[in-house]
Amino acid sequence: MKRTLLTLLLAPALGTTGAQKAEPALAKYAAAAGSEKIYLHYDRSAYRPGEVVWFKAYLFQNGQPDAASTNFVVELLNPAGRAVITQYYPVLGATVSGSFDLPDTLSAGNYTVRAATPAGAGNPAALYRHNLAIVPAANRPAPAASAGTLRLHPEGGHLVDGVTVWAGVRATDNWGRPVSAEGVLRNEAGSVVAPFRTDANGVARVPFRPIIGQTYTGEITVGGKTVTGTLPAVEPSGINLHVTPEKGSYVFQLARSNKDKDRYDNLLLVAEINNRVIYENTIGFDGYPSVKGRLVTDSLPSGVLHFAVFGSNNELLAERLAFVNNGDYRSSIELSGTVNTGKRAGNEWELRLPGNLQRSLSVSVTDADAPAAGNRGGIDAYMLLHSELGAPLYNSAALLERTDDSTRLSLDGLMMTRTWSRYRWPEVLQGSAAAPALAPTGPVFLSFGGTVIDEREKKPLSGGTLQLLWEGPDATSRQFLVPVGPGGRFRLDSVLLYGNGKMLYSYATAKNKQQNVIVEADPAKAPVTVADWGRLPEDWVLEPVPAGGARTATGAATATPAAEVKGAAPVEDKNDPKKLRQEVNDQYASGVYKNAGRIVYDYKSMPVNNGTTGLFDYLKQSIQVLEVQRGQIVNRRIQSPQGFAPIDVLVDESPVNMAALTPFRMADIALIKFYDPGFVGTGMAGGAISIYTKKDAGQKTPEAAALPSVPFTGYALARPFPDSVAATATDRRPTLYWNPGVLLAAGENSVKIRFSNNDVTKRFRVVVEGFDASGKIVRMEKVVQ
Asked: Is the pTM above the cut of 0.70?
């Protein structure tokens, strides 16, 4: 009797069997390389020249909020690939809130936003890239699509003589968007081997039996033009891997060629997801030409599932990507409130979220009819698909939102046509894969260093103290005392300053005698340097630039330039303690530190009777859980075998040790906030204390005015989002509400959204994105009217 198929028992969904080599090898590689991922949430998807782009970046490391990175770079590249904007920001609480002003001289087109941290600068897979559509300021029709590309990819990666294979087909137009079209697969003689039709996602599957010596070409007709794509050459022997999605599982089938079949008697099958091997087993054919098995996936985390088949010498024989979509990343978010689309009408809504973990979110409300990118994505699609594949799938948000069989099969077809690029399996198995550097390079936040030179002798001075006074935009100031070492060298690390300013300086000898000096500052170094951003993938998705300009027939709003908007001035009780506390908090705290935490002290609503009281004494009296253990501030309510949990201490949002608090008196302090354990802005288990020193009122003393200075560039300043426009102006804002600083403490489940409509919007698009303290993704997108 002829043997045709060996069916294996159900494969375990988690765990491996027998002596393993892939699991420890991948675990070693993953530990060395890490898995940093960056995602940016924008206030909307398309912009005009002269407008402001607001964004919030979310940083992940191995699936958790990134607690290590402190510096961040974001760039905007024009269609020619030249950077037109480069900005640096600090990372606070694993997030970055920022903005950039688009020059009004920009031409319409497809621009690229890219971003990185020092930790990911050496790993192209960790670099963020996103296509940003800049639409024309004047109304004009979008350019018509034309025939683009037809890509054919044999399932498993190879065509093997006499072994039936499914060829994945992906058709796109010149913008990278999917094309639905009829086509055929032809052999070398031009005969039709099999017909096919690509679906709404541009995908088709074509089964056929390749023959050695033949070449196979696919062709489709789009807009009267024929587009072709070619499959690789047929190999005389080898393995074919066929994977079929079923509910809660994937069925796999391995088939071998007649030629050299003994070479493939025993193979290693490995399946991994999120850099974790979840199946590893030796597959024996036992004389059969093919073997069939099932991998149960209903208990796996969602993500890209990577099948790989190896020979006896670790040779990679076949691989196939699939996607597990168990919906575990979805958040059930409720939006309630009355929708008011009248001119400049007020809206107050409430978002309710499940769960009890701390969350960091960003919320945007835009005109649903404003020009927008057709390629819809989101934090879930980016983290689960784009960052794994290295290039976006068109309209990936819909691919995840829809759970019908046709969408599931279409997504699997897209996975069939992709190849794995994050690492090379054979090198991982052999231990020769070069893992990208994981640890951040460079200082924490910014640094300022140089040499102190005696003004008269022109020689370096050693010892003593350099007194620095930072003067930044809007009369902001900060003071620093820095010891001067041998050779006149000094260095100030962990500097958190914003904008372009200057460092005024004076020098005191070890005997506290003032002496005239010259400071020669070290050349400024970029906080993040990426040696090679790499090229954009060939299948990068672009946008046919949509029509823009004045109000269109569809009712879309157009943007108001930043120069026309201004914040509203609400009438309020200036002596209300709650208002005073909020005023101080808004003035001093920023980013992730602003909305979270409990205000322990602010100088307006709770001034101290004695300004000479020491800061440390005040902290011990005011924060009951605070205690000192072995020279460290700890939380006595949180204990581990090593002792009480340490508390992170920050002055002006820069980390300091306990000794740094000694010189401060309460007269110097503007605000003190305490953050409970679990706060995403710290890696300390005991929570955090953030202390803010009073800002200079803008009046320099005559002594300070006469001090010499050197320029110093701080981090980029994010433009605040305006609440309204001037009463006399026409309000055409496409973005009505943008809040990147929504922070929910553990146990908090709701947040209010308050905004006023513009003069034209009739439908609102609401997008909520973010993550919780465990790294679980939060996303909601709704259109309400």
From this structure: yes
Report the pLDDT value the prediction gives residue 352, as an integer from 0 to 100: 94
Residues of 337-376 as b/e, b for ≥16 C-beta within 10 angstroms?
A: eeeeeeeeeebebebebebebbbbbbbbbbbbbbbbbbbb
Tally of residues, the chain? 785
Q: Do the Cβ atoms of 373 and 133 come closer than 8 Å? A: yes
**pLDDT at residue 417 in the model:** 92
Q: How far is CA 20 from CA 31, 136, 279, 291, 311, in A?
A: 18, 57, 10, 21, 14
R_g (Cα) of the chain, nearest Å: 30
| Helix/strand/coil for 374 | coil
Instruction: Please check the confidence at residue 769 and state whether its pLDDT lies above 90.
Output: yes
The answer to whether 413 and 203 are in contact (CB under 8 A) is yes
**Domain boundary residue among 491, 523, 555?**
523
pLDDT, one tens digit per residue, over 143-158 is: 777 778 999 999 999 9
Q: Is residue 720 part of a domain?
A: no
Task: Count structural domains, the chain.
Answer: 2
- Encode pLDDT of 158-201 as tens digits: 999 999 999 999 999 888 899 999 999 999 999 999 999 999 99
Nearest Cα to Cα of residue 52 among 736, 560, 549: 560
Within-domain flag for 544 = no
By C-alpha distance, which of 479, 481, 478, 490 is closest to 449?
490
455: which residues sit within 8 A by CB, 6+ positions away?
515, 516, 517, 518
Q: How far apart are CA 308 and CA 166, in angstroms?
A: 17
Residue 546 has pLDDT above 80, yes or no: no
- What is the Cα–Cα distance from 383 to 304, expressed in whole angstroms? 10
C-alpha dihedral (209, 213, 214, 215), degrees to nearest 10 = 110
Q: What 3-state class would DSSP assign to 568? A: coil
Q: Which residue has the tokens 């979840």?
A: 278
Do β-strands 290-296 and 6-11 pair in parallel, antiparallel, or remain unpaired?
A: parallel
Flag whether 199 is in a domain. yes
